[in-house]
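#onboarding

Welcome to the new folks! Below is a worked example of what a typical request in this channel looks like: someone posts a single protein sequence, and someone else replies with the predicted structure as tokens. Don't worry about understanding the tokens yet, we'll cover that in week two.

Example request:
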Amino acid sequence: MNFRHFLAAAALAAVSGASFGQVAPTPAMPSVEPAPRGTHTPVIDKQEHNQQNRIQAGKQSGELTRHEARRLHAEQKAVDRAQKKAAADGSVSTQERRRIRHLQNRADKDIYRQKHDGASKPVAPSVPAHPAPVQ
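Example response:
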């Protein structure tokens, strides 16, 4: 009989302990449950935005030639296609996210290499190379 009382008390404690910490969320206390991941990729989107800005800044500063910028933009489009393909089924899996991040990391390295390779956009001379003869 003591064993039954012990089991009943243990079961009651387990049930009451599990429900003790549950409180209904109020407007002041939002739900803590994580939202389903789905196709929401904020980290990937932020890195993509930063890469676009770096390419644009490289074009404006002359660190990237037109050819380099076009190639980097094409690489960004490939990352976009991979992201759209991953999201096509309504969810981006962990493996798909890992592949997209890998492509973005490679693009990051390519942007850095191209911006620091010494090739620069030719600057138009402000003074003609051969001034006209003065008469």
